[in-house]
Amino acid sequence: MTVDPALIRNFSIIAHIDHGKSTLADRILDVTGALTAREQVAQFLDKMEIERERGITVKAQTVRLDYKALNGVTYRLHLIDTPGHVDFHYEVSRSLQACEGALLVVDASQGVEAQTLANVYLAIENNLEVIPVLNKIDLPSADPDRTRREIEDVIGLDCNGIVQASAKTGLGIRDILEEIVARVPAPKGDADAAPRALIFDSWYDSYRGAVIMVRVVDGVLRKGQKVRLMATGRDYELVEMGVFAPHPTPITSLGPGEVGFLVANIKSVVDTKIGDTVTDAVHPATVPLPGFKDVKPMVFAGVFPTDSGQYEDLRDALSKLNMNDASFVFEPDTSEALGFGFRCGFLGLLHMEIIQERLEREYNLDLITTAPSVAFHVYMTDGSMRRIENPAKMPPTQSMDRIEEPIYRVMIHVPSGYVGAVLALCQERRGEQKSLQYASADRVIITYDLPLGEVLFDFHDKLKSVSRGYASMDYELVGYRADDLVKLDMLVNGEPLDALSVIVHREKAYTRGRDLAVKLKDIVPRQQYEVAIQAALGTKVIARTTVRALRKDVTAKCYGGDISRKRKLLEKQKEGKKRMKMVGSVEIPQEAFLAILKLD
Ligand SMILES: Nc1nc2c(ncn2[C@@H]2O[C@H](COP(=O)(O)OP(=O)(O)OP(=O)(O)O)[C@@H](O)[C@H]2O)c(=O)[nH]1
C-alpha cells in the first residue's frame, strides 16, 4: 500500500558543522516515538563509530516517521540526513533533491556561517522550502535577535515567527514538526507514469550486496519488479524493499513521494551511482531525473604498507572499503622509495583522512601515506591533454605546453576584525579575490578563487589560526587554470624520494625546497656516514642540507648501567623503526613524508 502523497513531507536538516543537526534529528525521533529509551542514548542517525568520535556525519541515512499533528491528522515524514562536510557536496545536493523542504538549523550563539550559507544555496537551487530554526537557545551566549537578523540580511529568509529551539533540552521540537507539516509542500508525482526514483545514497551490506536508498518521483516500484539503473543501463530484479522506521522494515511497494531502500543483487556500490534514476526495465521512462553527475576524486595520495608483507592485506582492505564507498578510487602504484602500494583518489582531505584512519584502525594496517596532490590537466606540445594525479608521473618539461590546476571558489565567513589577516593569507596562496561583502556590521563574507593545491596545504589550519578560530569556510570546484607550475624533487644522497615530489608554483619552489631540505635534515636520522639532502627542479639543485655522520652508539651511555634501561632504549628504537623505509642506504621515517604538509 502506498501512502496518499498529500500526507507525505520529505525534508532534510541543513546546518553548519556542530550547529546541532544530529541532536535535533534525535529529538525528532523522540517526539515521534520512534525509538525506545535505551536507543535514545546513542545518536541514532550517525551510524559509524568513526563518525561518532569525530562528531560528523559521513553517510546519509534516512528515516520514516509517522507524526500525529495538532490537527489530528497523521503525516508520514521522511527525514533525509545529509552529510555535513564540503567534501560530500554532491551527495548533499542529491539528498536535497529528494526533498521538498529543509530545516535550516542555525546555532543562535554562533550565527550564520560558511556552510550554513553553502547549504542554503543548494537547498534554494533544488527549490526547497527553507524553514529556519534557531538552535541552542538554552546557551547563555545565545543571541537569538542577532542571529535572526543575520538570517534575514544574509540569506534573505523571512524570520517572522521563527522557531526558537534547543535540541539539547527538547524545547521547540513540536513547533518544528508543526512547521514542517504546514510549510513543506506535499510531493507531486504521477502515480501512473513510468517509474522514476532518485538514488541519493547507497552502501554495501555483506548479505545483500549493494543497498540503494531512493526517493520515488513518479510511478510505483514493486517487489519482484525488473528495474533499470539509467546511467549504467543495467537491469536488476528488486528482491527486497524496505524503509527505516527507524529500524529496517520490509515493504512491498513505494509510490510517488515515498522514500525507502532497494536490494537487487547488485554486487558493488560502484554500480549504484548517486544521482542516477531507477526505472522499470520493461517500460522504462524516457528521460532520467535531472542533475546526474559522475563525481571525480579531487585529492590523490599514495598509500603504502610500512611492512611490505602487508601489501595483500592492504589490497583487501581497500577493496572492502570501496564496496561501501564508491567515491574513492585506488590502483596499484610503485614508488622507488616506498615499494609497492596504491594510489588512491578521494573527494577531499577529510575524506582522505577518514579512509586512512579506517584502514589503520579497522584493518590494523601500518601505513605510510604520501603528501596529497591534486589532479593536473597537462597539455602536451602535440595538443593532447593528460590528467596527471601523481607528481612523480609528470611528463618531461620539454614535452609539455602548459599545466592547468584545479581552482576552487572558497567562501570565508569571518568577523570584520580579521579581514586583513584572511586577505593576506588568500593572497599569499595565489588567490584571486572575487568579492567582499558585509553580512552584518561585524561579519564579512570573503570570496576567493584559490588553487586547490594551495587549499590542501594546511589552508584551513592557517585560516583558523589567523582568525583565532572564528573563520569558517566552504568551497567548490569552478574550473582549471594554467600557471607557472614546476615539479620539485627531493633527493637523499642522490636518490630521489619520489614520494615527496610535488608540483608547485615556480616562485614558491625555492622557499619550499629550502624549507623542506631543512626540515628533512632534522627528521632523517643520523647514519654512520654523511647524508646529503637536496631539492631539485629537473637537474638543477636549488637547495641542500647535510645530515652529519653519527659518532656514538646510542646505547653507549648506558655502559655499566642498568641493563633494563638499555633494553628499553633498544625497544624504543625498534618501535621508531617500525615506520621507517630504506631509501638507497638511508632509513627515512614516516614523519618525513608528512613534513611537507606541515611547512611553516
Ligand atoms: N547547549 C546546547 N547544545 C547543543 C544543542 N544542540 C546540539 N548541541 C551540542 O552541540 C554539539 C554539536 O551537535 P551535533 O548534533 O553533533 O551537531 P551536528 O550539526 O550534527 O554536527 P555535524 O554532525 O558535525 O555536522 C554537540 O555537543 C551537542 O550536544 C542545543 O540546543 N543546546
Describe the structure in your own words.
The chain is globular and about 85 Å long. It has 600 residues and is an alpha+beta fold. The longest helix has 18 residues, at 506-523. The chain has 15 helices and 34 strands. Helix content is 26%, strand content 34%. The strands form seven sheets. An eight-stranded antiparallel sheet has the order 11-10-16-7-8-15-12-13. It has five domains: 5-183, Rossmann fold (3-Layer(aba) Sandwich); 196-280, Translation factors (Elongation Factor Tu (Ef-tu), domain 3, Beta Barrel); 299-370, Elongation Factor G (Translational Gtpase), domain 3 (Alpha-Beta Plaits), CATH 3.30.70.870; 377-483, Alpha-Beta Plaits; 487-599, Elongation factor 4, C-terminal domain (Alpha-Beta Plaits, 2-Layer Sandwich).
Bound molecules: guanosine-5'-triphosphate
Q: Low-confidence parts lasting 5 or more residues at pLDDT below 50?
A: 50-60, 556-561
Question: Largest sheet, if any?
Answer: 8 strands, antiparallel
> Which structural class do the helices and strands define?
alpha+beta
Put simply, the count of helices is: 15
Give the overall average pLDDT: 86
Strand content: 25-35%
Shape: globular
**Total number of beta strands:** 34
- Judging by the overall fold, what is the CATH architecture of the largest domain? 3-Layer(aba) Sandwich
What is the CATH T-level topology of the largest domain?
Rossmann fold
Order of adjacent strands in the largest pleated sheet: 11-10-16-7-8-15-12-13
Number of spatially distinct domains: 5
- Text of the CATH class of the largest domain: Alpha Beta
- Oligomer, anyone? single chain
